[in-house]
Design brief:
With about 260 residues, the protein is α+β, with helices and mostly antiparallel strands. Helix content is about 25%, strand content about 20%.
């Protein structure tokens, strides 16, 4: 098809650990040094380059198949479930979430032990109500073929002008953005603490989602958090060793946020 191009994503080598990163096991040095370095290029911090992915989107579906979508990542959220086992009740809970691919903004929609079709459809309606007029800029919703996604779920999104795109069977790479967030939340939160129950899990994920959306940088966004579009307002720092650093503990110290002290 004319005008479609294959987008290749490349990532630079991981930076060396720094003193700040040692206080947050499992968190990369890049994640804690971005708020301090801002727009500067101090020694030991390598900034990646962003790609223009606004024209076409290519989703790898495996076995040589490609799913091509026009409109770009700004119009394409993706949704999925991931399981979490409770240490106290010995029950398996399921977390339903939606990630906005263009900005990496995450929405944790709900936690349940029985994710049936009616529950999933209601979470989709709740998402549309929360988005309000913002829902008009979305054109596609990427999902897999799990039984929780019924025709009522697709109809609820279609009523808001969002077309549901199903990935090929047994092709998780076709929903790569959602799968990558699952890996992130497991590595940084659920894999490092014991979950007592549904209320505990929801409280933990809500606090982590706030950190993820407002503070955690992303290479795909030129080291900007999902809800931060301008990094030029932050003062440049040439010598991080001489700057006054303020630490804020998240989830009881499981994650640390760093920023320059006023």
């Amino acid at each position: 098809m004319k005008g479609l191009t294959l987008i290749r994503m490349s990532y630079g080598k991981a930076t060396r650990p720094c003193a700040l990163a040692r206080a947050s096991p499992g968190i990369s040095a890049r994640s804690v040094t971005w708020p301090l370095a801002a727009h500067s290029r101090p020694r030991g911090i390598r900034f990646g380059s962003s790609r223009d992915r606004s024209s076409k989107v290519v989703i790898h579906a495996g076995e040589g198949r490609l799913l091509l979508l026009a409109g770009g990542t700004e119009t394409m959220p993706a949704c999925d479930f991931f399981p979490v086992d409770c240490a106290v009740t010995l029950r398996r809970l399921y977390v339903f979430f939606v990630i906005e691919v263009g900005t990496r903004h995450i929405h944790v929609l709900g936690v349940t032990a029985h994710p049936d079709g009616a529950w999933t459809t209601q979470q989709a309606r709740n998402l549309l109500m929360d988005l309000g007029e913002r829902a008009e800029r979305f054109r596609f919703m990427i999902r897999d073929r799990a039984g929780q996604f019924t025709e009522a779920f697709d109809a609820a999104l279609a009523g808001a002008g969002i077309e549901v795109v199903k990935i090929p069977p047994r092709s998780p790479r076709a929903n790569a953005y959602a799968e990558r967030w699952v890996r992130t939340v497991r590595a940084e939160v659920t894999g490092r603490m014991l979950i007592a129950g549904p209320r505990h899990l929801r409280a933990v994920l809500d606090e982590y989602a706030t950190h993820y959306n407002w503070h955690r940088p992303h290479r795909g966004r030129n080291l900007r958090p999902p809800d931060c579009d301008d990094i030029t307002t932050m003062a440049a720092t040439s010598d991080l060793a001489a700057a006054r650093i303020q630490r804020r503990r998240i989830l009881g110290g499981l994650i640390n946020e760093y920023e320059r002290a006023a």
